[in-house]
Amino acid sequence: MAHTEKDHIKVSAQLESEIDGLISHYPQKRSASLMILHRLQEEFGYLSQPAIEWTAMKLELQPINIYELVTFYPMFREHPVGKTVVRVCRTLSCALGGSHQLHSHLCRKLGLNPADKGPQNTPDGKFTIEFAECLASCGTPPVVMCNDDFYDNVSTDQADKLIKKYNQP
Ligand code: FES
User: Fold this and answer.
1) Of ligand 1's atoms, which has the minimum distance to the CA of residue 141?
2) Whole-angstrom Cα distance, residue 30 to residue 33?
3) What homologous superfamily does CATH list for 84-166?
4) Which one of 87, 88, 94, 144 would you pick to mutate in the ligand 1 pocket, going by the greatest count of ligand atoms within 8 A of its CB?
5) pTM above 0.70, yes or no
6) Given pLDDT bands bounded at 50, 70 and 90, which one contains residue 125?
7) Contact 89, 135 (CB under 8 A)
8) How is domain 11-72 classified at the CATH fold level?
């Protein structure tokens, strides 16, 4: 298959030397896998197939060794996300506290499909909405995270305010 622009990642010289530094801290190169994946995800927003291959190449491993990590750990993403990732807890206490209705409300507000339970991105790239498992505040449902910011007891009114707040250019 012909390679396209999308088949490559552009790792800057500065990032590569930072990653080389990380690798040098470990007696075995492969021990740096998770650190590198975190760093690449921070840089690119997600871990594409080329990013996985690049990591494998740096660590002298097979891409499957890295791919297994990416699919095993829920914090890693294989697809691009919006600028703000809205995570709605769907575990029991939040489900009973209205998180599914809240998810539907948010989807409607953002022009997304309320019936789609997987991650969805708005076409403008501003938001991703998805369900999450317990966000560790079960006494104050429903709980939502917007990137690293935490919100509990989220009403539909508050959800509207959150969308306004994070709807940045
Ligand atoms: S069930 Fe939602 S935070 Fe625990």
Assistant:
1) 2
2) 5
3) Glutaredoxin (3.40.30.10)
4) 94
5) yes
6) very high
7) yes
8) Arc Repressor Mutant, subunit A (1.10.10)
